[in-house]
Write a structure and sequence with these properties.
The chain is of the alpha/beta class. Helix content is 34%, strand content 26%. The strands form two sheets. Strands 14-13-12-11-7-10-9-8-15 form a nine-stranded mixed sheet. A six-stranded parallel sheet has the order 3-2-1-4-5-6, sandwiched between helices.
């Protein structure tokens, strides 16, 4: 029996890509969409989906289309309420990251997910990539020793090339700029790959593009983790369309690894006895050509999400993890505003 999924929010930068992913999954049936402007939304749908019912009212969609799960692709400000409505209806939730403008704004959604006992996932998909899995395995095997440094960069196309009028640059809808849209990916991967939690944040955020936007387009964030590791994240909307500069690096007392430009491989070095015959190794993964958002990685993420409620498989993401990333985002903004280092409470949320 097909998994019935409805999409909430048609006009989102990742909405069409996710629909392509679902169209390539024979076990899934996209049964309906919800959008504030159904007429405009229908024009955005892929031709094979133009016959789908499009609801203006989310309660009506949940009641009449009877989805088993929803895919929420809405601006951050609107996402928590959609999560709450779906969860309260007993419907599993996959929501586009970072799921809210602020940690406080996400708390009611987190409580609704917990109370309903539904499964939850979000779009931090580097966890689901073969490279992400291999990096975490290297860490868990102790090949890098005690971790001391983590570093990430995301330098990408300018605000002007991305349309300054888009909701991504509207503070009321998004909560922040490049950190809320792109930096959050690395913040999640840094904590997940290392197994460490952020305890302190110091940040400088600014708008340097000259574009008339309300949010940061440049960010430098320093991080302290609960295992003593120190991290840094640098993000900027500064290049032309020909260049995106991405980097992830992790270093420990026994070795290091580097993932450049989101290539299909990464290099690691270890002085651990298990690697004595070849201390430096390059790992390469040939991606399977797949349509949709992030290709085969997007399919893997959605299949794992479905398995969590269809088969009782261990979920690859927990809702409280989304809260932790939002807490780091909040702390970065507060640190930049006040010039102070901001502490994040430890322990369960």
């Amino acid at each position: 029996m097909s998994v019935r999924i409805a999409q909430i929010g048609v006009d989102h930068p990742h909405a069409a890509g996710y629909r392509d992913t679902l169209l390539g999954m024979p076990e899934v049936e996209l049964v309906a969409c919800c959008d504030a402007d159904p007429v405009a939304a229908r024009e955005l749908l892929q031709p094979e989906l133009r016959g789908l019912p499009i609801y203006r009212s989310l309660p009506a969609l949940l009641r009449e289309a009877r989805p088993e799960a929803v895919l929420i692709t809405l601006p951050n400000a609107a996402t928590p309420d959609a999560i709450i409505q779906a969860a309260q209806g007993g419907i599993h939730v996959y929501a586009e990251k970072p799921c809210a403008r602020t940690a406080a704004g996400f708390l009611p959604a987190l409580e609704a997910v917990r109370q309903a006992g539904v499964q939850f996932a979000t779009g931090y998909l580097r966890r689901c990539s073969p490279i992400g899995q291999a990096i975490r395995q290297i860490v868990e095997q102790g090949l890098l020793g005690r971790l001391v440094s983590v570093e990430a960069r995301w330098i990408t196309t300018s605000v002007q090339a991305r349309n300054p009028q888009h909701f991504l640059f509207d503070e009321a809808q998004s909560g922040g700029g490049i950190l809320h849209w792109l930096g959050c990916h690395w913040l999640d991967f840094m904590r997940w790959a290392s197994g460490a939690e952020v305890t302190e944040v110091s940040a400088i955020l600014d708008t340097l593009s000259g574009a008339p936007i309300e949010v940061e387009d440049m960010a430098a964030v320093a991080l302290r983790y609960d295992d003593g590791m120190i991290g840094s994240l640098h993000c900027g909307y500064v290049t032309d369309k020909s260049t995106t500069q991405l980097f992830f690096g992790l270093r420990g007392t026994l070795g290091w690894l580097e993932w450049q430009r989101m290539d299909d491989g990464f290099t690691a070095h270890s002085a651990h006895p298990a690697w004595h015959t070849a201390p430096t190794r390059t790992f390469h993964f040939e991606p399977e050509p797949t349509k949709g958002y992030l290709g085969a990685t997007g399919v893997a993420a959605l299949r794992s999400f479905i398995a969590s409620f269809r088969e009782g498989a261990a979920p690859w993401f927990q809702a409280d993890e989304a809260l932790r990333i939002l807490e780091v985002l909040d702390a970065a903004h507060e640190s930049s505003r006040t010039g102070q280092r901001i502490a994040i409470p430890a322990g369960p949320r």
